[in-house]
Fold this protein.
Amino acid sequence: MAKEVVFDSEGALMSWAFITARREGIDWLRRQKNAPVSLDETILELLEAEWANESLGQASGRSQALRDCLSELPAKSRQLLKLRYYEGLRCEEVATSLGTKLDAVYKRLSRLHQGLKGCIETKLNLSAS
């Protein structure tokens, strides 16, 4: 918030705040990798889902759509996304972990991003109808 930013709506502000807080939390956990973490991954996911449902209003529909779309992905795709975004590995590390080429990781991530975007938009349009 060092820069002066104007948000189009309260939902946009809450979405930004949620994403920023989550990223800061993940960064903090990475810096604490040798320190014991008292919350299990499952508890963190439950807290995240609950906070999203209560605090984000309209944005919670988008979060639920994302969760639904992620659950529909093949296991290999979910694994790739988990390594990259949840575990925070660089693409090079993901490629090594999966035993594939770096370029393949970039292409798969790009296709997954586009597919998830389309899936979320479809689910949101269906729920708005």
The chain is about 75% helix and 0% strand. The chain has a mean pLDDT of 80. The chain has one domain: 10-128.
